[in-house]
Specification:
- By secondary structure, this protein is of the alpha/beta class.
- It has two domains: about 110 residues, no CATH class; about 180 residues, 3-Layer(aba) Sandwich (Rossmann fold), CATH 3.40.50.150.
- It is globular, with a radius of gyration of 21 Å.
- The structure holds S-adenosylmethionine.
């Protein structure tokens, strides 16, 4: 009797893990840091003294909430607030509360790859700000574009906070921004958080804390592969390593194999060999200056309409509008 082999269709996660670990040099996407454990680790990172980004953006949103509100509500019509990679919404809640206190008519649509973080956000909002119409949506930034693409004439304000844009290399960022720009009308805004170039040591410390929380967060991608794809990564045999190039403004995270080792990923029927000190590149965290943001905006059909900085000029929120 002839044996029939049922072809298995790989999920996007499985496909990308296979691709990244069989490439040379090896790489994995930082979007896969975030499961329930990864979300909790990122929330711990935001509380670390070294991770200045959260405090800076928190201060900007607190200080400029009324200017930002005036801008978003300038046509006195309801608007739609779409947030890409919303996370726990800690900083967004400053704006949500202010908008609600001002009786602005708006709908909040947080989008995130992590269902667990969205569940937490929905729950906390229903307790803290139950009056807000919140419609969470699970998906990637690119999938979110379809959600943005509505034609009912309501102003869209797209929030992209936390310097999430910094996870994309300039070329990818331009491609992504272009796709967003194509879906935007003259009256819409893109509200973009960008971490700025600064003392390189301050940046390195933010991604390499002494308590090792960032190391745990980085290794969570291996922990996910272990639990979801039945693999046997020994997390203790990999070292978290961070570099920052002050010329390009690019911070990069790696996991470095400390020994020669072979890892089996059962669900992918795959064995991956590592030489001693071989790397897996896991994240980029791009740092910006005004000229670079202006260039990115121009390349993707936007113009900078407004900008807000924190008192140390560590971080900026830029308001972009379509230039065409
Ligand atoms: C660095 S955290 C920032 C969270 C929040 N914006 C803030 O500023 O606190 C990134 C968030 O974006 C989500 N995320 C990362 N990559 C994503 C992607 N490609 N598509 C959708 N969500 C993504 C993660 O799950 C996480 O909640």
């Amino acid at each position: 009797m002839q044996e029939t082999i049922t072809p298995t269709i790989e999920t996007q996660f499985e496909k990308e893990i296979r691709q990244g670990l069989t490439d040379f040099p090896k790489h994995l996407s930082s979007k896969y840091f975030y499961d329930e454990k990864g979300d909790a680790l990122f929330q711990a990172i935001m509380k670390m003294p070294e991770y200045y980004l959260t405090d800076c953006e928190f201060d900007i949103l607190t200080q400029y909430q009324s200017e930002i509100g005036t801008l978003f509500s300038s046509d006195n019509k309801p608007f739609k607030l779409i947030e890409l990679g919303a996370g726990d919404g800690k900083k967004t809640k400053i704006l949500l509360k202010y908008f609600s206190d001002q009786n602005y008519k708006f709908k909040y649509q947080p989008i995130d790859i992590s269902q667990s973080v969205l569940n937490g956000l929905k729950k906390s909002l229903s307790e803290e700000l139950p009056q807000i119409n919140t419609v969470p949506k699970q998906g990637t930034y690119f999938e979110a574009l379809k959600e943005i693409n509505d034609e009912n004439g309501t102003r869209k304000v797209i929030l992209f906070l936390g310097s999430n844009i910094g996870n994309l290399l300039h070329k990818q960022a331009i491609e992504f921004l272009k796709s967003v720009q194509e879906l935007m009308h003259k009256n819409d805004f893109l509200f973009l958080g960008c971490d700025l170039k600064k003392n390189p040591q301050t940046i390195l410390d933010a991604y390499n804390d002494k308590a090792g929380i960032t190391a745990k967060f980085n290794k969570n991608i291996l922990a996910r592969i272990n639990s979801e794809l039945d693999a046997n990564f020994d997390l203790g045999a990999f070292r978290h390593w961070e570099v920052y190039d002050p010329e390009t403004g690019t911070a990069k995270s790696f996991l470095v194999s400390e020994i020669a080792q072979t890892v089996r990923i059962e669900k992918l029927n795959l064995e991956i060999s590592f030489s001693p000190w071989e790397t897996i590149h896991t994240e980029i965290s791009q740092k910006y200056d005004d000229a670079t943001v202006k260039w990115l905006a121009e390349q993707s059909g936007f113009e900078i309409y407004e900008q807000y900085a924190d008192k140390n000029n560590y971080y900026k929120n830029y308001v972009l509008r379509t230039a065409r």
